[in-house]
């Protein structure tokens, strides 16, 4: 969580070294459990890029624009970017025009999404129960099962849907690169072509990329959901039944 000390430390580091502000900047807009940690790690394989984490998290910065400027300076890279969920930017500026002015103007925009909201929310709810979001060991969930509240799951899907509607409104008329989890990040074979696509969007040469992260939630959700049938039935009776197409075929 962003603390006031984070802003102070960033400011002190800038005052101490007086680094120049990079002229090449980018932002990754995303919703949780869409592969942002993986994408960030791939991008950071480039020696001329530093992609920051979620610098605002759940708190409003006292001086949000200055904090971003300071963060961009302290890593000494030609290219600087950061991850951000839409609500984090809305915490800094409630007005959409202010968000566009301070975060989306003069920067390269990468929009990261996941097509299957059901899988996305299941991943999030399992992550909450585990208290862990990334793994560096393959098949780490082998044998583990989790129970998910079907009502909570449907409400989570509604939030994802609402987010995408707000995103479309915010980005209307702007140029941005779309990265889709299923098409660009799900399999290891996609990683280099995806990184190359991002590097091209940023206007920088490509380099080889790799990551120690593994996908830990299996494609067959019955293996990790203790109440799989209950959850599937709730989705089947909701407006999101179409997301079951690729889930039930892997049962």
Q: What would your notes on this structure say?
A:
With 251 residues, the protein is α/β, with parallel strands linked by helices. Helix content is 45%, strand content 11%. It is built from 11 helices and 5 strands; from the N terminus they run H-E-H-E-H-E-H-H-E-H-H-E-H-H-H-H. The chain has helices at 4-17, 36-43, 64-73, 86-92, 96-104, 117-130, 150-171, 181-185, 191-202, 228-236, 245-248; strands at 24-29, 49-54, 79-84, 108-113, 177-180. Strand 2, helix 3 (64-73) and strand 3 (79-84) form a beta-alpha-beta unit. Helix 1 crosses helix 3 (64-73), helix 6 crosses helix 7 (150-171) and helix 7 (150-171) packs across helix 10 (228-236). The model has no long low-confidence stretch (mean pLDDT 90).
Gist?
This protein is an alpha/beta fold and 251 residues long. The protein contains eleven helices and five strands.
Share of helix among residues? 40-55%
CATH topology: Rossmann fold
Contiguous helical run count: 11
Number of domains: 1
| Average of pLDDT | 90
Sheet with most strands: strand arrangement:
2-3-1-4-5
Beta-strand residue fraction: 5-15%
- Stretches where pLDDT is under 50 for at least 5 consecutive residues are none
Annotated CATH homologous superfamily = P-loop containing nucleotide triphosphate hydrolases
CATH class category label: Alpha Beta
Q: What is the H/E string? A: HEHEHEHHEHHEHHHH
Shape: globular
The CATH architecture = 3-Layer(aba) Sandwich
Integer-rounded radius of gyration: 19 Å
């Amino acid at each position: 969580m962003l603390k006031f000390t984070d802003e102070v430390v960033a400011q002190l580091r800038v005052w101490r070294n007086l680094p120049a502000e990079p002229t090449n900047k980018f932002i990754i807009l995303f919703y949780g459990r869409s592969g942002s940690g993986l994408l960030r790690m791939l991008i950071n394989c480039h020696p001329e890029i530093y992609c920051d984490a979620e610098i605002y998290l759940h708190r409003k910065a006292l001086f949000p624009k200055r904090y971003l400027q300071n963060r961009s300076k302290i890593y000494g890279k030609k290219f600087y970017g950061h991850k951000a969920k839409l609500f984090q930017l809305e915490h800094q500026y409630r007005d959409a025009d202010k968000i566009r002015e301070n975060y989306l103007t003069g920067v390269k925009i990468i929009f990261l999404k996941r097509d299957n909201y059901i899988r996305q929310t299941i991943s999030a709810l399992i992550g909450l129960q585990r208290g862990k979001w990334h793994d560096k060991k393959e098949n780490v969930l082998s044998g583990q099962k989790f129970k998910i509240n079907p009502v909570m799951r449907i409400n989570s899907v509604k939030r994802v849907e609402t987010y995408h509607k707000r995103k479309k409104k915010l980005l209307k008329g702007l140029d941005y690169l779309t990265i889709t989890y299923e098409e660009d990040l799900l399999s290891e074979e996609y990683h280099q072509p995806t990184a190359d696509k991002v590097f091209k969007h940023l206007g920088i040469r490509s380099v080889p990329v790799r990551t120690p992260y593994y996908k830990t939630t299996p494609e067959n959700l019955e293996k990790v959901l203790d109440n799989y049938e209950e959850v599937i039935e709730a989705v089947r009776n909701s407006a999101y039944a179409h997301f079951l197409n690729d889930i039930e075929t892997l049962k």
